Amino acid sequence: MTFATHRFLFVRCAALACGWLLLAGLVRGEEPAAAIVLEPGDNPPPFVQLAPNEAPVVWDAQRVGEFKLVDQLDQPVTRESLLGQPWVANFVFARCSFQCPATCRKIMDLNNEVADVPVRFVTITVDPAHDTVPIMREFADIWKAKPDRWLFCTGEPKQVWDLIRKGFKVAAWENAGTARMPGMEFAHSNHLIHVSKDGEILGRYDSAVDSELVTLKRVLKGQITTPLKFQPATLDALAQFKARQAEAAIPADPLDKLPGWAKRLPATNAALNSLATLLLLAGFFAIKAGAVGLHKRMMLTAFFVSIIFLVCYLTYHYALHEYAGIRGKPFPGTGTLKTVYYTILISHVILAATVPVLAIITIRNGLRAYPEGLAPQQLAELVAERKTHHRWAKVTFPIWLYVSVTGVIIYWMLYHL
């Protein structure tokens, strides 16, 4: 082989390698759908699981209904008796070995910290069948609870469970099977429920989270209003959240991040490919008609248009990476349509990588075979050059034409299907 042949083979292999790299970038351009995430300003509605093996429901408790309990002194405790002063409810059972004592310890500390605030604490048992008035009195004595400030309540089981499940809408149930162990006979919520002086439920706070207890203390002291994240869900808030969730479920189009000039480039590229196709066909028919000059002008113009296309194409993919963070627009179709698209795309990319090399060689040979300013007799002597040009043109033309046509097809499949 001659040096020129080796050089050509090297250039062709390099072009094919570039084509495969470009194709790999296009295939990787199909980014996975973004996960739905909450923004810092979003507040999802609170949920609660009221019973085991049940799906969580929205915590939308708004108002404490009528109820009748008794405290550690066997005095009646009703909704009416608690009106006129805000109060904080929590839930325990006397046999609890860890969770309930920890919650009561935090309530005792909170009670001391808001000693100057007119508020009452109401601790309600979730085990009314076992936790009688004497037992609740003993429990209250452990925490040095003063009845005018901190009530430990029990009552008729149905009354208690209706208040817990329907009034406060908090999680509580009796454990069974292997989950029922000494000190863990019941599972229940750790939340403290803040109730207004008018019996309206204002918020809930997890007693296991110290930062939430600090927030509750600030609310009780009147330093802040109840933050939205602690409030019961309202119909409006729930509707707004569902609307935001529905919007988030629809993946945002990364192409929306592109500036206006970049958004116009795909259509511009398709137009340039269409123009190159017309110029190639015009040049083909011109040479068939013997119009060498017109053929030369058409082919050179087609090459110039292809150069402009390449610049626009590279600029667009730079913009995709810079502004949208993707390598290419993913194909929206599925099934057979997707197979057809990628079949066209793969052949287009591989052949497109060869077009610059083939076009340059063919045009160079054409300019040598048909130089300007020579007499017809001199042109007739360039037989070998013309044969070389014709051989290259027979390879270059169909590939160049195929790449130009499929470029338009890919555009329509990608942006208009």
Automatic annotation (TrEMBL):
Thioredoxin domain residues are 38-225
| Binding annotation for Cu cation | 96, 100, 188
One Pfam family, short name please?
Answer: SCO1-SenC
Q: Which PROSITE patterns match?
A: THIOREDOXIN_2
The regions listed as transmembrane in this protein's record are 270-287, 299-319, 339-361, 395-414
Coiled-coil segments on the chain, per record: none
Source domain of life? Bacteria
User: Which keywords does this chain's UniProt record carry?
Assistant: Copper, Disulfide bond, Membrane, Metal-binding, Transmembrane, Transmembrane helix
Q: Which GO terms describe its molecular function?
A: metal ion binding
Keyword Metal-binding set for record? yes
Disulphides: 96-100
- Provide the family line: Belongs to the SCO1/2 family.
The identity of this protein, by name, is Protein SCO1/2/putative membrane protein
In which organism is this protein found?
Planctomicrobium piriforme
